Amino acid sequence: MIKKKKSVLEIYVFGHYIPMSPDKAKRVIDQIRGRSYEETLMILELMCYRACYPIFKLVYSAASNAISNASYNMSSKETNLIISKAEVNASTSTNKLKPRARGRSYPVKKSTCHISIVMSIVMKDISFDDEYRKVDSLKSVKKLRWKKKHTTLGYHNIYSSGRI
Hints:
four-stranded antiparallel sheet, single chain, alpha+beta, Ribosomal_uL22_CS
């Protein structure tokens, strides 16, 4: 789904009934929220979670939709894409029965989740050099140093009366 609001193009991608726990997917989504498209792909390729692959597929499909839609697209560069919103919601869980000893069965709940990602196109170029310059400028600022207050408690303070 593509929406245009106030000269900003937003691309919505939904993944329904993905067979994994929403908590495991949230762990990955929190890492990519607010990042650029290129940086997101690098993060998802290098993270070693099972949730990365379906999220990678959703992000890749959102980017291809944004670039292929030339009628709505203002600039067709992948460097201008940013993940503006990313959500994970719990979905239905399926109940399965696991066979146990003596003909008994044990219920197992398999949880599923819905993932929604919103990518927006930014007019100016986003490059890694600009981000590293910002980080370097922040590192050059002096860190605040807290004065250490030395408070020592010796045994002479506790046993000042002379009695043990």
